[in-house]
Amino acid sequence: MSSPALSEPYSDQHTTTAALSSNSTSDQQTSPENLTAEPDLEPVKVRRKPIPSKGHKKSRRGCFNCKRRRVKCSEQLPRCAHCSRMGVNCEYPAAPSRNSSPHPGAPLRSTPMALGLEDLRFFHHFLFKAYPPVPYGSQATWQSLASMVHEYDFLAHALLGLAAQHLTLTSTGDYSAMALNHRVTAMRSLNETLSKPCATKSDGDARYGTILVLMFQASCMPDGMTDFLITLRGCMVIESTMAGFKDSSFKDFSRDSYVESFRQLITCPPDLAYDETVLDEISASLRIIGPLCRSVAELRYLLHLERIVQLARTSVFEACLVTAGTFSLTNKMTDEEFASFTDPQNYSAQILLSHFFVLDHIIENAAMGTNCFLYSYTRAATLSMAAATSTSMISSTTTTAAPAPSCTTAVPDKNGFVPPDSCNANYGFYPSWEWNLVFAIAFAITTFVHVVQAVVLKKRFCWVIIMGALWLCICFVLRTLGAFDQQEMIYVVVSTLLFLLAPLWINAFAYMVIARLIYFLIPEQKVLNISARWLAKAFVAADIVSFFVQAAGGSMLADQNDAEKARLGQKVYMAGIGVQLAFVIAFIFVTVAFQCRLHRLMNGGKLQRSEAWVRPLVWTLFAVLGLIVVRIVFRLIEFGKGPSADNPILQHEAYQLCLDAFPMLVALVVLNAVHPGMVLKGPGSSFPKTSWCGKREVKTRNTAWFETDDDARQGYPLRDRGSESNVESGGRV
């Protein structure tokens, strides 16, 4: 009813009260006592009340004017006889409904809802066309829910809002303003109601049905993507507040029943041929989005979309069922993940959602056949969602002061390759999976042989060379996989780091072997007045420093999305590799001095060890150090030219394979052929594992032995007499 009608009862009551007060005052003035006490006052003529005719039946359906005047109303429509005679507006109270009785637990409305003709049209449209189509066959549930609108304002507004929005999409009229008004009113009223617990089953059904209707209305709104996800999450919250959800009318509205309803709607054969071009374009677009995803929720959503695309290639039937269950993915996120995922400024998540809704629309239309008319209204909303996302991104990029990009994003081929000058290019060349597989197998074989040799010869320090070989093996396994998926950043980053850092293990192993040979073969256990122990510690420590410097530079260099960071990483890596080269050259001079001292001992016949594998091992170590130098020089030249298109080394994979991978493979193989364990065997072949007190005791004992033993004065080695027992009792080998 209109607002003037709502104010009439208050006016009638006020007027009646005034009349009663006036009558009471008149009675007091005309009483005998008053006439006696005040003879000067003229008697007031009292108007007699009309006597009702005999046989009169009382009625409460008279108009407000007759009730105020306290006269019998003729109850004629549209105006009674008294109002017609007096020329005033005649209004009757609303007639109570005889067909429905109030529910014991039904809440009373404080503000009656005013309905217009358009609202009646919306209500009719909801009952026959606009009710949510899923789960399939739930029309009776929605019709039963619609019969409760007279008890719950929020439910009535929600139904009218969905119908108005649906009618906007399916007709030529624009009812979006009315739909939004009903939606806001329903949400405000529902929020007030949620502060109270559900008293009856009807309360729970009304609340749950309202949030479902609001969710489907959001799916019809052009900018309702975020609202759809929020209301979908709200369904889970409201369900948790319903104590008797198992007895609810919506007990079958579960995820499984939702998927099962799609199974009934799908009419296409399971082996329906799908347009491969559409799937290829969607898959290529997802590969471009991949590097932009940062959070775990985004990556999980991306993997789910890629799975749907793969299923669509084989069975649209299964893809449609998986798509139906994908809507609940956001309900499994934490509050922080959901807030970040639905943030309008999180463009990667917005793009993922747009891809999902477009993919859902395409697959449903292909799978449902003649039943696709149930979702025909979603086409406009889906396209509007995608357009709004792209428009928001374009406006954001145009308002920033960032310079225009110097590259373009290309569509990858089936293996993910794009031209090297593209923004999404991870390789400057087309990787050869055949050659990468060959190197992966070769490094796997040499790794296995090194493990066997370390176990058989009982040389624990060989774990260093095993790490270098294993890293190179893993590197080329990842490069082989990356050749088939060149947009996968994890393959690029990890393989690049392993490729750059693995040779440092081989370098450190050469340092350790030379130091042990000096300790084992040279009587004074020193070269260039540097003891073997300090020689090993100094050069291995320098190699470790170079390792961390190169690791820091390599990690920055592997980030292809930040050019400034990549240039800084290039400089840091070149500094680390320059330090490595300086120490390698210095160590080569130490090795030359060791070779000269060893040559004099062997020519003088003073070498007490077997000479069979000494010379081959020394020349093998020279070869290994030379190969490391070749590899370092190649890397300096490669990074010295910078990551420009004029650098031919970055445009051809053969340079990396021939001047980096192959030298390291040769170094590992020659160390297999001439293993240090063939020479370093027996007592004194390893540094003894002693404590600080033990070292002082050994030094004192060796000094006393040197002063009393004539052979020691002639140049024979001073070594720990307990080294043999140390090795036999489990000391370091």
Automatic annotation (TrEMBL):
Membrane-protein topology: Multi-pass membrane protein
Q: Indicate the principal place this protein occupies in or around the cell.
A: membrane
Compartments in which it is found: Membrane
Source domain of life is Eukaryota
Q: In what ranges is there compositional bias, type Basic residues?
A: 46-60
Compositionally biased intervals (Polar residues):
1-14, 724-733
Q: Which GO terms describe its cellular component?
A: membrane
A single Pfam family, by name? RTA1
The ranges of region (Disordered) come to: 1-60, 709-733
Q: Which residues form the Zn(2)-C6 fungal-type domain?
A: 62-92
User: Which residue ranges does UniProt annotate as crossing the membrane?
Assistant: 435-456, 463-484, 490-522, 534-552, 572-596, 617-634, 654-674
Xref: InterPro entries: Fun_TF, RTA1, Zn2-C6_fun-type_DNA-bd_sf, Zn2Cys6_DnaBD
Give start-end positions of Low complexity composition bias.
Answer: 15-26
User: Which Gene Ontology molecular-function terms are recorded?
Assistant: DNA-binding transcription factor activity, RNA polymerase II-specific; zinc ion binding
Ordered alphabetically, the record's keywords are: Membrane, Nucleus, Transmembrane, Transmembrane helix
The protein in question is named Zn(2)-C6 fungal-type domain-containing protein
